[in-house]
Amino acid sequence: MSRLRARIIGTGSHLPEKRLTNHDLARMVDTSDEWIFSRTGIRERRIAAEGEYTSDLAAQAGRNAIQAAGIDAATIDLILVATTTPDLIFPSTASIVQHKLGLSHTRMPAFDVQAVCAGFMHALSVADQFIRAGSCWRVLVIGAETASRIIDWNDRGTCILFGDGAGAVLLEAELDGERGLLSTHLHADGSQIDLLLTDGGISRGPAPGGGMGVIRMQGNEVFKQAVKAMESCVDETLAANQISKEQVDWLVPHQANIRIIQGTAKRLGMPMERVAVTVDRHGNTSAASVPLALDEVVRDGRIQAGQRVMMVAFGGGFTWGSALVRW
Ligand code: UT7
């Protein structure tokens, strides 16, 4: 029986110009480069300029993925944007991105997916379902954030972690192809929202200090949950594909903390040379982190055709998910 599979035919990313180093942060809060680097693996992160929005980063990452794929952008059937930091409450950032890409005349659907740091895995899985069902031929999936806009710059437990950026993949349906998305796996557990959330919003009203709210996190607890969830997702993905960990060539994990990444790599018995790491330069870019890291290892030629790539992420909600791709 014939079947459709989603193949990644192009990747792209985009980062704001401005770098915020650990030394810069040490002048803002009671911290040090040594503490931040040893606990997280982060050296610096990028911060969007005033007037630079999530949709700007997303659109540029999208353009780069379209260019890498070498396709006519007007043939895209669907745009998905995973973000926790949309330009506005509404319309969706995906609608704004569609327009910024000059594609509104196509009338293609475009919508956002919200699963915080696991947002890209969720958007990728949604795109995969559309392609497998035969509803879409080409889908642009973007993860983009301006996390800096929801940071309490006086909270040393969170302000050192996050950064801004965007990454994208262009998916194309292929009939009976060997390459592409082999499986995706998504999960949520809404029972522990107090461990990682914003302290203000829309229906609940503004934050105590006013405004849309900032990230509040019990880092230590989140750390433990992240390690557990990412390890179990890796196991689930191996089992679903009936492969052993030795058959995975690359790990592209969410970039929250190098120690979480090392834990997931260990579960796969994966040497760190086979793990995409950008956390040192990008910090945690939430929904953008997996596609940003993926774009780096694709563009510098480290990932080769035919290799198996495991992507996995964990975030607020809690939400977590993975995807296995044959490149
Ligand atoms: O992306 C989605 C999910 N997010 C994550 O996965 C993040 C997960 N969490 C983490 O990465 C880590 O928990 C952090 C990096 C946030 C914190 O590292 P930790 O090793 O878990 O530290 P901790 O929260 O247990 O704090 C240890 C100490 C505390 O001081 P006391 O109470 O022992 O005196 C903190 O006040 O470190 C202190 N501390 C800092 N010290 C210097 C917390 N932040 C800082 C800081 N600089 N920036």
From TrEMBL:
Keywords: Acyltransferase, Cytoplasm, Fatty acid biosynthesis, Fatty acid metabolism, Lipid biosynthesis, Lipid metabolism, Multifunctional enzyme, Transferase. The keyword Acyltransferase applies. It is an enzyme of class 2 (transferase). The keyword Cytoplasm applies. Its EC number is 2.3.1.180. It catalyses: malonyl-[ACP] + acetyl-CoA + H(+) = 3-oxobutanoyl-[ACP] + CO2 + CoA. One of its GO terms (molecular function) is beta-ketoacyl-acyl-carrier-protein synthase III activity. Its main location: cytoplasm. Pathway: Lipid metabolism; fatty acid biosynthesis. CDD domains: KAS_III (cd00830). Residues 111-190 form the Beta-ketoacyl-[acyl-carrier-protein] synthase III N-terminal domain. Residues 238-327 form the Beta-ketoacyl-[acyl-carrier-protein] synthase III C-terminal domain. The active site is at C117, H254, N284. It is found in: Cytoplasm. Pfam families: ACP_syn_III, ACP_syn_III_C. Catalyzes the condensation reaction of fatty acid synthesis by the addition to an acyl acceptor of two carbons from malonyl-ACP. Catalyzes the first condensation reaction which initiates fatty acid synthesis and may therefore play a role in governing the total rate of fatty acid production. Possesses both acetoacetyl-ACP synthase and acetyl transacylase activities. Its substrate specificity determines the biosynthesis of branched-chain and/or straight-chain of fatty acids. PANTHER family: 3-OXOACYL-[ACYL-CARRIER-PROTEIN] SYNTHASE, BETA-KETOACYL-[ACYL-CARRIER-PROTEIN] SYNTHASE III, CHLOROPLASTIC. Belongs to the thiolase-like superfamily. FabH family. Homodimer. The last Arg residue of the ACP-binding site is essential for the weak association between ACP/AcpP and FabH. This is Beta-ketoacyl-[acyl-carrier-protein] synthase III. It comes from Candidatus Magnetaquiglobus chichijimensis.
